[in-house]
Amino acid sequence: MESLFINLSQAFTAWLMSLGLSAGWADALLLAVQWTCIVAIVTLNITILIWLERRVSSFFQERLGPNRVGPLGCFQTVADALKLLTKEDIVPSAADKLIFKTAPALFIIVAVMLYAVIPMGDGMQVVDLNVGLFYFISIGSLSTICLFMAGWGSNNKWSLMGALRAVAQMITYEIPLAFSLLGIVMITGSLRLSEIVEAQSGVWFIILQPVAFLVYFIAATAELNRGPFDMPEAEQELTGGAYTEYTGMRWALFFLAEYTNLVAVSALMSTVFLGGWQGPWLPSWIWIIIKTYLVMMVFFWVKWTFPRIRMDQLMSFSWKFLIPVSLGNILFTGAGIYFCKWMGWC
Amino acid sequence: MALDKDVELLSKNNVLVTAFEKIWNWGRARSFWALNYGCNCCPIELMAAGAARFDMARYGYEVIRAVPRQADLLTIAGPITVKMKPVVERVWAQMPEPKWVLAMGNCAISGGPFRDGYSVLPGTDSILKVDVYVPGCPVRPEALFHGLLELKRKVEEGQY
């Protein structure tokens, strides 16, 4: 069980080589298959995830949630997807057609790109970049551009306001997000995610870096546009934010990409803070799934517990609280490392 | 007339398209995302229908969109005044096909007590083609569910 997927990929490569392909071509084909699997798993996972969030949010509000379509209502999202697929596709005549149409596609591409560096198990990583963490942060911030494209291309005042909010919020929260991860990079001395996971074989980084974990969690919530920081899509004030003009499947792509981002960030969080794929008894790839789902449950919990905060509170919270705290965490970590060296503990 | 007969014959033989239409309708009937229009008492019942005791979410109809672009169902829950008429018409035009109208409450059905007023339209059907009428003053959540399930049956049978 442990090396099921690794054996599968090795068997696939060996089969391709036996057909007379060179090693380079076999690797390229293997990458293509891996990417297809990622896209398929992400899409299927999200149909479950949306149903799960609707059920979970219902339980928070003492309701039952969708339970009529299929067993426990688990085909509810399938029905929604079928409907969204067949809705009329409206492109407003005043919109910038090219930007309007490419924004959702780019958004989902960027979201799927995040999965390249996440270790999904022992040795199960599409590419093990030596700047994996940096890659994740930089690609994650690209989604700002897609949101702004959507808002600008729609040529609608609500869309533009939502997009401006998204840009302001994401740029603000990018800084504490990156700073909170710096403490871990200082301890492990590496940006490579597989090395960060291996460094946690003794003790998880959530114990060594609790402040960084909290700062990262808050900043990631804002980065994902999830409640209580869902300002860009604030339905009550901005009708629909940057997505106001999108119909049917184009809008669904945005939704899909947001959930894809959520899964990716949860996976990164369990990789960096919760020991990644490490765990007893079960195979490594099951451990990362369990941890990712647990982190996602906390995201759901936060979203359905707290009301949305105001835009100025959002900005001042980041600039006046999160950034000083994350900077202090870096200082404290550095002092701790020197103390350890001085005492001869590490 | 001859053309109509041809079309009928073709659509009878066109098994694939009708099968797909059935699948789409299965999905459509189970996910009405509503855009609500209302004045005072019927919307309160709408809130009750969405909240804990009645829970519209069981049928998957709890997604209330604030944007006409993402809505499938226009719930008219109140009298349409002459001043609001162009707004309702515009919102209806902004919704993507396929879309439905549900007239909720006596005011939306016929104008109710305001029927003879100078400023109120005598019912939603004077401007839009209504799919389901749900009478009541105001409508009980159970009646609203019955209306929604009737609409579901209608969509599943392809009568729209």
How is the secondary structure organized here?
The complex is a heterodimer of chains A (346) and B (160).
Chain A lengths: L3 H15 L4 H38 L15 H10 L11 H17 L18 H23 L2 H32 L4 H7 L5 H4 L1 H14 L11 H4 L9 H25 L11 H20 L7 H33 L3
Helix pairs in contact in A: 1-2, 2-3, 2-11, 4-5, 4-11, 5-6, 6-9, 6-13, 9-13, 11-12
Chain B lengths: L1 H12 L1 H15 L4 E5 L2 H10 L22 E5 L7 H10 L5 E5 L1 H5 L21 E3 L6 H16 L4
Parallel strand pairs in B: 1-2, 2-3, 3-4
Helix pairs in contact in B: 2-6, 3-6
What does this structure look like?
The complex is a heterodimer of chains A (346) and B (160). By secondary structure, chain A is mostly helical. Chain A is built from 13 helices and no strands. The longest helix of chain A has 38 residues. The two termini of chain A are 35 Å apart. The model of chain A has no long low-confidence stretch (mean pLDDT 86). Chain B has 160 residues and is α/β, with parallel strands linked by helices. Chain B contains six helices and four strands. In chain B, strand 1, helix 3 and strand 2 form a beta-alpha-beta unit. The mean pLDDT of chain B is 85. At the A-B interface, helix 3 of A face helix 2 of B.
